[in-house]
Amino acid sequence: MNAMRPEKVEATETETVEPNLAAVTEVEAGIRDFVRNDIAYLRRPASGTADAPPLDPSAEATVNNVNSLIQRVAGTSLAEIENLISELESLRDLLHAEGQRVQREISGYAQLSQAAMKSTRMIADNVAQWKRAADGLRNS
Q: pTM higher than 0.85 for the full model?
């Protein structure tokens, strides 16, 4: 029965991740298509000469729109990564604190167990002495 639980958790995580992955893939595909089809002609020659013709205003606006889109997508992704890092750090701190607490609890239980064993031995020794004394009184 326990073996079934991790599968359910993984399926839930996969179901949550798949729509996000599909959305990211769709955005990336849209950007690729846009760059290939709509602004490929805007590529400047690699020579870097000053003779290159200036971009017309509509092409420049298109380039600015693409840059803005990429910055928004990257900014959102970076913010999500930073939030994830922050959550993981707080989780690490929580796990560290819980680990220390568990160690203290185990140490306390070990001390309690040792004290119980000593008490049990003392009681057993006393009962054995009383039994020997009672047997000695019966035999005399």
A: no
